[in-house]
Amino acid sequence: AGLEQFTISEVAAELEKDYGKIDFLVHSLANGPEVTKPLLDTSRKGYLAANSASAFSFVSLLQHVGPIMAPGGSALSLTYIASENVIPGYGGGMSSAKAALESDTRTLAWEAGRKYGIRVNTISAGPLKSRAASAINKKGEKGFIDLAIDYSKMNSPLAKDLYADDIGASAFYLLSPLARAVTGVTLYVDNGLHIMGMAIDSQALDGGLAVPEPVAT
Known about the structure:
It is a single chain. The protein has a four-stranded parallel sheet with strand order 1-2-3-6, with helices on both faces. It has a two-stranded antiparallel ribbon with strand order 4-5. Helix 1 (8-19) packs parallel to helix 2 (44-65) and helix 2 packs parallel to helix 3 (94-116). Helix content is 39%, strand content 15%. By secondary structure, the chain is an alpha/beta fold. It contains six helices and six strands; from the N terminus they run H-E-H-E-H-E-H-E-E-H-H-E. The termini are far apart.
């Protein structure tokens, strides 16, 4: 479609001109200009900017691209566990934006399912050292994302590294006919970290809890 037109409506028009109907849409976009600030220190402008770029952009994409998606198609976005659990250091209204994105996913699954015959889902990915994640504030020797990766590996049921290919494989499933009856879902791809209610590497547990060693894979 080229890069000359940048608004969502213009991109949708170019896609329709070049391809007619499309089968899937992936929203992999987030921005919080004040992500390094605690929520209590976040300005109204920063909060609204995070929600506009990270949540409403998905709504807007479906508003404009939905009409050119083929029935049976699939739309997918990426979210993060901060939508439902407190993740210190992930600020600037981004946790609120991810919560909105997940709620919108369910509503859009209903509305776009009935209006266009398409599916709408989101993937809640575990911590990956992407360029965007690396931009979050660094404190001490390790940055936010490095700490999150170490925490995840230490406390997840599957105590192993998470790779972009893991997210990609799950995205492939949700975008493909294999998931033709799946919509409105937040799929956790995080080695199971989301189920944990206790940090097993907490100093408070030293000597008081038997933790099985992870199986090498």
